[in-house]
Each structure stands twice: as C-alpha cells, then as structure tokens.
Design a protein that fits this description.
This protein is an all-alpha fold. It is built from 13 helices and no strands. The protein is globular.
C-alpha cells in the first residue's frame, strides 16, 4: 500500500514537472517573439527605413574630404590623386560600417546580433574609459539608472503600501480625503516636479545639488564618494517620489478597502483575531499579487521617462545615453539600449507568472495542482 502511494506521488510529481516545463517553454518562446518584433521595429525606426544611411554616407564624405584637404602631407598631390585617395578612404569607412550591404540584410544581421546581446561597436560614441563597444558603454551607464530609479520606486512601494494600509483603517478621515484629493497630482511626470525642486531646493534654498551624480572632483574614499552620490540623488528621487506616491496610495488603498469588506475578513474579526493579524493574513496577502504586478510593470515602464528626468538632473544614466545616441544617430547604441530594456521587461513578465502562484495559492499553472 505504501509502495503504491509512493509511486502515485512520484508520477504526480513528474506530471507536474512536465507541465511546468511545457508552460515555461511556451512563455519563454512567446516573450522571445515579442522581444524580437520590438527590437526589429526599433532597428527600422532608428534607421528610418535606411534613410539614416544616406545621411551617414554624406557625413562620411564630408569628414574624409576635410581630413584630406587639411592634411599637409596631401597638398602636393594633384586634384585627381586627392579625389582617388578620398574615394579609397570613403570606401574603407563604408565597408567598416557595413554600409555597402543592402539595408534589409544589415537589419536582419543587426537583429540577430542584438538578440544574442552581441551589440557591436558604437559609430560615434565611446565610454568614459575610451571603449567603443556598445556593451561597455551601456554597462557603464546602466548602474546609475538602476540605482536612481530602483531607490525611488522601492521608497514609493513601501511608503505607499504602509500609508494605504493605514488609511484603509481610517476611511473617510481628513487624511484619507486629502490623499484622494492629491491623487491627480501624479498626472505630472517626475521631471516636471524636478524643475521646481531644482529652483526651490538648489537655488532659492540651496540644500541639495542641482544636478550630476557626484561632486567634481569626486571625493576620495568610498564613504565620501557614497555620501556625495546620496546628496546628488536627493532631488531626483524626491521628484519621482512626489509624482508617484499619491496615485499609488489611492490605488492600493482601494484594493485594501475592497478586500476588507469580504465575508472571510468579517468572519476573522468576529472570531476575535487581532487587527494586525487580520490585516496581514486576510487583507494584505490577497492583494499582494495585483500590487506587485502594478509595481514591477511601473518600475520597468518608467524607463521611457528616464530620458527627460536624467537630462533635467544631468544624471549620467541610460536615459542620458539614449538621448545622446539619438542626437549622434548612433544606431548600435540606440538599439543596444532598447534591447536591454526589452529583456528587462520580458524577464519581469516571466517572473510575474511564478510570483502569482507564490503570492496567491489559488493561481494554478495550466490547470495543474
């Protein structure tokens, strides 16, 4: 009897693992297709269907002509020799950039390399260390963006959850009505509040730096350097906090109020369970899935606003890099930045499926047990 039970349990476990493997493979394939489509559209748009290549060809001809005419070593050459030399150098530059191949072929090659995270070399830009590899350029800027936006959004998440849970116990109070009245203030983006914070707290009352990531010259020692970074983070973090906190409190307070009126919550209170236990087990736990979902998607989705926010605060992150790459028409850097965020979004969506099952036991994968 025990042996039959053991075999039944083992067969059930193998069936569940097989179902989980099939589900994981389907989700990975679907997300990969989405990433590929998004990246290829970015390649087409970044090149404007190949028109950027024509501008780049004209730029190459102009730069080579200025270089040859301004070099004293070529002054003794005849006009025909100088023209032949310029054409030779132009051809070498065209072959180096791959502009001698059809755009469709190059776009597909860009796509293959981008999906494999082989981002190639930048055409105009370079890292602070002098590297022209797109991977090194992005790796140098990405931590600054993750630190800034990660800090701001974690503060928003914990502060809004605690405040929403506290206000749900004081429904209709003055503070509750004030939070509802301030919710529309989140319609303005973080960079909008950042402009006013710079004017107020950096110039009128200079309590924090107006921009940058660290003082110039950078302070010596890790603790002094970290303290300088924290001081420079105050205003951008505060700007993002103000732009998100009230709408988050309003949204999650609504979740808590809805679940607080459920029959099982009233039953728990009727049994005499402490209010803290009721909130943690019967109100907070069922609402964690939608709260975590909205938070993670908001965290990844805010990267589009990073361009303007980082420009306002002169923050050397990925948003500033993307802005500079667009100005230089540096297609590899533009595509590389989009690929990184596309993968971050895909990983987040993939993890959300499993977070649902962890946070809410009612969620099942493909009908599994």
């Amino acid at each position: 009897m025990a042996a039959d039970t053991h075999r039944s349990t083992g067969a059930s476990l193998l069936r569940d693992l097989r179902r989980l493997g099939i589900f994981t493979a389907k989700r990975v394939l679907a997300l990969l297709v989405t990433v590929v489509i998004g990246v290829y559209l970015t390649i087409i748009i970044a090149n404007m269907g190949g028109q950027v290549d024509e501008l780049r060809m004209a730029q190459i001809r102009s730069e080579v002509a200025e270089q040859v005419r301004g070099d004293p070593a070529f002054r003794d050459l005849s006009a025909e020799e100088r023209e032949a030399l310029m054409e030779e150098q132009i051809q070498l530059e065209v072959e180096r950039l791959g502009l001698d191949e059809p755009f469709i072929r190059r776009s597909l090659d860009y796509l293959r390399q981008a999906v494999l995270l082989n981002l190639g070399r930048a055409e105009q830009m370079h890292s602070d260390a002098g590297s022209r590899k797109v991977y090194n350029i992005i790796a140098e800027r990405l931590p600054a963006t993750l630190v800034l936006f990660g800090t701001a959004n974690l503060l928003v998440f914990f502060a809004s959850v605690l405040a929403a849970l506290w206000l749900s116990r004081r429904y209709g109070s003055g503070l509750d009505r004030a939070a509802i009245a301030l919710a529309p203030s989140s319609a303005a983006p973080g960079w909008f509040y950042g402009i006013f914070l710079i004017l107020l707290l950096a110039f009128v009352m200079p309590v924090a730096p107006a921009g940058g990531m660290v003082a110039a010259p950078p302070p010596e020692g890790p603790w002094a350097y970290a303290a300088s970074v924290v001081r420079h983070m105050v205003l951008p973090v505060l700007a993002m906090f103000i732009s998100q906190i009230f709408i988050s409190i309003y949204s999650w307070r609504t979740f808590f109020l809805i679940h607080a009126s459920e029959d099982y919550v009233e039953m728990a209170r009727a049994k005499g369970l402490p209010d803290r236990m009721v909130e943690q087990r019967y109100i907070l736990r069922p609402t964690l899935a939608p709260i975590v979902t909205s938070f993670l998607l908001m965290l990844i989705g805010l990267w589009s606003g990073a361009i303007i926010l980082e420009q306002v605060f002169n923050w050397p992150g990925l948003g500033t890099l993307l802005f500079e790459a667009i100005g230089h028409r540096d297609t590899p850097v533009i595509i590389g930045s989009v690929v990184i965020f596309a993968y971050l979004l895909a990983v987040t969506v993939f993890l959300l499926d499993f977070l649902y099952a962890i946070l809410d036991p009612r969620v099942r994968i493909e009908g599994g047990q």
